[in-house]
Amino acid sequence: MSYESETRFTEPETTYEEVRQRVSRVLNDHILLVLLGPALLVIAAIFVYPVFQLVKQSFYLTIPGVPNRFIGLRNYTQMLGRTEFWTYFGHTLVYSFGSLILSLGSGLAVALAINHVVNQRIRNIYSTLLMFAWAIPIAVVAMIWKWVLTGNKLGLINMILMDLGILQHPYAWLANQNLAMALVTFTDAWARMPFAMIVLLAGLQSIPGHMYDAAKVDGATTFQTFRAITVPYLRPYLAIVALMNWMFAFRAFAIIFPLTSGGPGTRTTVFSIYIYRTGMINFNYGYASAIAVFIILISLVVAIVYVTKVMGGVQEE
Amino acid sequence: MSTENESYERISYESRQRFWNVVESRYVVHIVLALAVLTVIVPIVWELLTSFKANDAVYNLTYLPRDPTLSSYYEVLIGQQYWKALLNSLIISTVTTIVVMGLATPAGYAFSRYRFRGDNVIFIGVLFSRLFPPIGLIVPYYQIMSWLGLLNTLPGIIMAEVYLWLPLMIYIMRNFFMSIPADLDESARVDGCTRLQAFRKIALPLAAPGIAACSILTFLYSWREFLFSLIVTTDLQSMPISVAVYKFVGDVSVQWASLAAASVIAVVPTILIVVFFQRYIVSGLTAGALKE
């Protein structure tokens, strides 16, 4: 009787400790699975599966209410045969390269300027204020500029220009066939400039100061110093900013969609708007998937360039 | 090249340097920066000024609000029930941050410390999923969400946000862990720590600034996100503020002051985060763009 109660008393404690140890041993034996498993599982479920679904669907004819039919590459041949596809491709290239040039140029100018400010507090104030453009929600960026550029007399630009006597009547900026693309591109670059600034500033700060001292002793002018020291040091940073800003502008949606929805007409319709319109408004899933696959392939090429640049550091270690 | 050198020699070093001194001078530097700051700030300030006007007062065409009022804020938050969108944004961003960091921190550590079969391939796969154009996935996401009954729900948006930010945060966390010497883990192992303890008790506390940076970035990114929130939601019950602001345009006549108030509400948290956590954001963005 007493023997039994004793075992009953001690048994749970030893098993608890044993279980804890065994669990800990199992966890430590499969450390990679424990650390990496959940994240990879989630990525597989919410990334790999949708990609599979997308690619599969691009080979099907999808009409709402009718069962999907396998049509092989017909979505692709149809896509490549349409002139609108190539027009939108052109728009996308103008938009992405325009945004890249503007954001990289202004980001570089601002980074160089900030790097010349000696006072740390003033540096921080400048970079904080400039980062506002990056931080605010992208759709709100579009709404803010839509309000500034409003075509009636309420828009800020029209108000200022009319007060100055430059304009007699309000001008509909975003309705202009040629201006619309320039303005959405500018707005995109406005939001992308701070990222360029931050990365290039990090690049500038990585240049050892004694390089400049040595150049000064050798009697180099500022421009020569810039060309011989700053540019070579900055080149990898410039390359990465260029790759990323271009890649992200190439697929950008949240600026154009609220600003012009691709208009006037189809003047600012880029690929992202094209996909949205085909897939989410006309519900032509198969055809939209084919366009998406095309964008993905282009991004993939750029991504490979980026990854080889970045992975250079991984191979060396 | 030779003509360039000759022309350089004709002008004396002093006059050339004097020219560049002007370019580099304090005045030019501050003029460039002031222009940039104005371009960034003026539209934002204009939105702020408009938000303090009443909807009718917008037509007075004054730059400053003549009778500053909070009526537009009241109209938007209570009248149009945008407090729901604000709450949705808070929930989405907070839960996304917790889920993403819970998954990305150990994964980033694993990539920084362990060599295993296919590690490079898997890591490149993660990098690719981060560079993948999300616009390509809107159609399958919309379909999967509707199969799962997740359209117009917060879990639906959170799922999309986790897809968007998890790979990037794995990459940034890996870079942060790479900057912590692996010797520390190894000496802890010699002292009898298990592998898991070396991660929990040694590496994790040291990575705290990196975790903070990534959390702030994830929160900001999911607060700013527009595309997937637009695809998944159609009503205010589950719509985040970034999409709710856009919905104002759909109205027949735009209530500009209300729109401005809604925008300011969406913008204020992000600006506060930048002002207070700028250092973390910069370190996160740099670690996310560059190689270790």
Automatic annotation (TrEMBL), chain A:
Location in or out of the cell: Cell membrane
SUPFAM superfamilies (UniProt xref): MetI-like (SSF161098)
Pfam families named among the record's database cross-references: BPD_transp_1
CDD domains in the cross-refs: TM_PBP2
Topology class, membrane: Multi-pass membrane protein
Descriptive protein name: Maltose/maltodextrin ABC transporter, permease protein malF
InterPro entries with a match to the protein in the record: MetI-like, MetI-like_sf
Signal peptide: none
Family per similarity comment: Belongs to the binding-protein-dependent transport system permease family.
Record keyword tRNA processing present: no
UniProt-listed GO biological process terms: transmembrane transport
Gene3D superfamilies: MetI-like
A single Gene Ontology CC term: plasma membrane
Keywords: Cell membrane, Membrane, Transmembrane, Transmembrane helix, Transport
Transmembrane annotation, as ranges: 30-52, 93-114, 126-148, 179-202, 237-257, 285-307
Span of domain ABC transmembrane type-1: 89-306
Keyword hit for Protein biosynthesis: no
From TrEMBL, chain B:
TM segment ranges: 27-46, 85-109, 121-142, 154-173, 202-223, 256-277
Swiss-Prot/TrEMBL GO biological process terms: transmembrane transport
ABC transmembrane type-1 domain residues: 86-277
Membrane disposition: Multi-pass membrane protein
Keywords: Cell membrane, Membrane, Transmembrane, Transmembrane helix, Transport
Major location (coarse): membrane
Coiled coil regions, renumbered to chain: none
Localization per record: Cell membrane
SUPFAM superfamilies in UniProt: MetI-like (SSF161098)
Entry GO terms, CC: plasma membrane
Pfam families: BPD_transp_1 (PF00528)
CDD domains: TM_PBP2
InterPro entries in UniProt: BP-dep_ABC_trans_perm, MetI-like, MetI-like_sf
Keyword Transport: yes
Family (UniProt): Belongs to the binding-protein-dependent transport system permease family.
Name recorded for this polypeptide: Maltose/maltodextrin ABC transporter, permease protein malG
Organism for this UniProt entry: Halarchaeum acidiphilum MH1-52-1
